[in-house]
Specification:
CATH architecture of the largest domain: Sandwich
Order of helices and strands: HEEEEHEEEEEEEEEEEEEE
Largest sheet: 11 strands, antiparallel
Radius of gyration: 27 Å
Shape: elongated
Number of strands: 18
Number of domains: 3
Strand content: 35-45%
CATH class of the largest domain: Mainly Beta
Structural class: mainly beta
CATH topology of the largest domain: Jelly Rolls
Length: 240
């Protein structure tokens, strides 16, 4: 009996050495901490390679070479979202001084790196963004004219502004301004709208508001797809 207890204690000690749980009765790693952890002293690494510790999706601590998380590393770049969201057809802005959402139509409105992570709502005027990331979005919106053929008898301009929603937090946002190609006075040129934002764990989205002013036309059109002879309308979505 004593021998049996002795062997059992050895086996139990070996098991405890293999997997130790803190605040958990069922550890799944050599050290499984169900709570906060603190290390009071660490030594600096002054020579390459250098590593950082980071949790994976399951909370397991992994060692990652810092070169793999630099922005100029190819693997790091390929993991980011770098997408162009484009229009295909001209879009009518029917009423002056009225906000419209720019829509992104066409057979393939999203293209670029990890474009599958960017989705559109049913109306195609709201861009849904993936969670827990930082983005810079720049808009390039062209004026088609006071008709969808591009003829402009009443010069005017359009102003643009991004609006983030859901669990997104705006860091900075700027207004955009674009003149008609037949503008007869010099009050500006082209200023792309820009927004920098952070998405949270819950659904986040961004919309681009656009309106026209100036002139006396009954409606205005923004450009569709770009061509060798005409300006287009699209967004550049870059993960920071």
């Amino acid at each position: 009996m004593k021998k049996l207890l002795f062997i059992s204690s050895i086996l139990l000690g070996a098991y405890l050495q293999a997997q130790v749980g803190i605040n958990t009765a069922a550890p799944t790693a050599t050290l499984d901490v169900n709570g906060n952890a603190r290390i009071r002293k660490t030594d600096s690494i002054t020579t390459a390679p250098k590593y950082v510790l980071t949790p994976d999706a399951d909370g397991n601590i992994r060692k990652v070479n810092v070169n793999k998380i630099k922005s100029n590393d190819q693997a790091a770049i390929n993991s980011k979202v770098i997408v162009v969201a484009s229009r295909y057809n001209p879009q009518r802005l029917a009423v002056k001084d009225t906000d419209y959402n720019v829509t992104f139509d066409g057979p393939n409105p999203m293209s670029g790196l990890n474009s599958n992570l960017i989705t559109l709502n049913g109306a195609k005027d709201r861009i849904n963004l993936p969670p827990n990331r930082n983005f810079k979005i720049t808009g390039y919106i062209g004026v088609k004219g006071s008709s969808n053929t591009g003829s402009t008898t009443n010069p005017g301009y359009i102003t643009t502004l991004f609006q983030a929603g859901g669990d997104a937090t705006t860091i900075v946002s700027t207004l955009g301004y674009t003149e008609s190609s037949t503008e007869t006075w010099d009050d500006g040129g082209v200023t792309p709208p820009i927004i920098m934002l952070s998405t949270g764990p819950n659904p986040s989205y961004v919309e681009l508001k656009v309106r026209y002013g100036g002139g006396s036309a009954s409606n205005y059109w923004i450009s569709g797809s770009a061509s060798r002879s005409g300006v287009g309308s699209y967004l550049l979505i870059e993960e920071l």
